TrEMBL record:
The keyword Transmembrane applies. It comes from Kouleothrix aurantiaca. This is DUF11 domain-containing protein. PANTHER family: CELL SURFACE PROTEIN, LARGE CYSTEINE-RICH PERIPLASMIC PROTEIN OMCB. The chain crosses the membrane at residues 230-248. Residues 47-64 have a biased composition (Low complexity).
Length: 254
């Protein structure tokens, strides 16, 4: 009897374990749906975009507008002079500025300044590039010029005797191998007045005219020249008369 009771207890123990295991399995399966609702994990239906909601992601531009156009290089040149008027022998300084108004680098930029024959070049300098000359023409080979970059060129000259009043002129031009350049800003010219003759190193003394003064007559203290001539003439006449009288006496004797 005792052995049957022990077997019955052992069987009930294992049945209880089986029931508990089955209950735990069913509980874990039913709690999965509420967990998803609490944590806010989106379901497959929530991922669908409503048909009346615009898709803003397609409106974002892929590139800035100016990059859609090809690059443009537009170098330009300006020129100024440091005087309004100059005389022969004066020094004059020309200032040339080169820049690039485009959005792309200007390549092979060259500045050419033909100096007129009435000006002699003293010095030519540039902030970038190589300066050379061909006869009386100053050439500055700058090379590439980036957008917004500025190069300054200065040319010192002296006005020579070939200068003719009233106006002196000097122009400069620029070239580039880049496409899209605006030819309307590729040259510049300045003018200045040419006045008078050469500027003397020192003012010459002014000649003062000497007034003509009539000679003053001295008081007569003796005989003048006309009286002497009369005396000599009278003496000669007397000698001639004396000689004639002697000759007449001799002729009478014979």
């Amino acid at each position: 009897m005792k052995q049957s009771a022990w077997k019955f207890s052992f069987l009930m123990f294992w049945l209880s374990l089986i029931v508990i295991a089955m209950f735990a399995t069913s509980s874990s399966r039913t709690s999965a749906a509420p967990l998803a609702a609490i944590t806010g994990t989106p379901t497959e239906q929530a991922t669908h975009t409503p048909t009346n909601t615009p898709d803003t992601s397609t409106r974002t531009p892929t590139a800035t507008p100016h990059r859609d156009k090809p690059g443009i290089a537009d170098p330009l040149v300006t020129k100024s002079v440091n005087v309004k008027e100059a005389r022969i022998g004066d020094e004059v300084t020309f200032t040339i500025k080169v820049t690039n108004r485009g959005n792309d680098t200007a390549n092979d930029v060259v500045v050419t300044d033909p100096i007129p024959d009435y000006m002699d070049v003293i010095e030519a300098t540039t902030t970038r590039g190589n300066v050379s000359s061909n006869g009386r023409t100053v050439i500055v080979n700058i090379g590439p010029v980036a957008p917004g970059e500025e190069i300054t060129i200065r040319i010192r000259v002296r006005v020579n005797e070939r200068a003719q009043p009233p106006v002196g002129r000097n122009g400069v031009s620029i070239t580039t191998s880049s496409l899209g350049d605006d030819p309307g800003n590729n040259s510049s010219e300045v003018t200045f007045g040419i006045v008078g003759e050469a500027t003397p190193s020192a003012e010459p003394p002014t000649a003062t005219p000497v007034p003509t003064v009539a000679p003053r007559r001295l008081p007569r203290t003796g005989t003048n020249d006309s009286d002497k001539e009369l005396i000599i003439l009278g003496a000669l006449v007397g000698l001639v008369a004396f000689a004639l009288s002697l000759l007449m006496r001799r002729l009478r004797q014979y």
